[in-house]
Amino acid sequence: MSTELDEVSEKQIEREEQKVEQRDKKENAIDARLDKIEKQLDSELDKVKPELITEERTSTIPAKSLHRTVVREKKTEVTPYQLFVQQVPEWTRKPFMYIIPKNERMKESWLEKWGDLVLLYCRTTISHVIALEELRTLEPFTNGNHGKKISLEQMQFLIDDLIRKELAKWLDDSKLRARIYYKTLEEFAEMLIKYIFDRGLDTEYLITLKELRGFEQEWSSLPDEDLDELLKILEKQKKVKPMDKQREAFSFNL
What share of the chain is helix, strand, coil (3-state, %, to 5)? Predict the structure, then answer.
């Protein structure tokens, strides 16, 4: 019986894929026509541009500079989230990817793909802790193009799989917040040491926890317990020494 259901599910997935492929072909054809129109417009504008010379000039402007045209393009900053969206893979456009497959092999693939996407989001946006309800409202976990969204239960299923792989842990019993380990504490420890060494802060300097937070590095926003654990790793390596019982100031010996 389960084999028959799996076959039906796979047929439904194939039909969904065919529909998406047909829609993609139509969209590609439209994009091609738009590109052609845009090139034609650019060509026409190039013919007009030499005539668009500003007449408003004062007598104090040197004659040599009158023929020069300075073009300043306003640079727009790309946010970490926008950078993440730019890296989102094409498979998120397929509606069937928002359904957990019943076939075990396909389910493992589904978990791996979405799990990697969660890790990519956290790595790109430097998010050590995620709120599941908030994350699932963001693209591509919510896809407005075909009205699909990862459910809370699916998101919890994903995090459980990352926990199984030692890449996450729950921060509350309701499973609404999770700590994501997109890098190990050992990797963050190496990054911290390199930062301290490159800036010459490794001799005759006391550095407080507040100062470590203020450096605004990837490791600066680690949860308190993780930052403390990171410093303990460096203590075992004899590279860091706490200077008070409260562990709020440290000296570095590199």
Answer: 55, 10, 35
3-state secondary structure of 35: helix
Short-list 246, 189, 241, CA closest to 218: 189
Residue 3, both tokens = 């084999």
The per-residue pLDDT for 224 is: 94
Angle of the 104-125 helix axis to the 152-164 helix axis, nearest 10: 90
Domain ranges of the chain: 1-43, 79-182, 185-252
The answer to whether 249 touches 243, Cβ cutoff 8 Å, is yes
- Quick: pLDDT tens for 98-135: 999 999 999 999 999 999 999 999 999 999 999 999 99
Question: DSSP 3-state assignment of 75?
Answer: coil
User: Can you give the pTM of this predicted structure?
Assistant: 0.68
Q: Which CATH architecture has domain 79-182?
A: Orthogonal Bundle (1.10)
The packing angle between helices 224-236 and 185-198, to 10°, is 70
Tell me the C-alpha to C-alpha distance, in Å, between residue 175 and each of 95, 107, 179.
Answer: 26, 21, 11
User: Residue 104 — φ and ψ, nearest 5°?
Assistant: -60, -40
pLDDT (average), residues 64-85: 68
* Number of Cβ within a 10 Å radius of residue 179: 19
Please provide the size of the chain in residues.
254
pLDDT in tens, 156-171: 999 999 999 999 999 9
What is the distance between the alpha carbons of residues 60 and 145, in angstroms, rounded to a whole number?
56
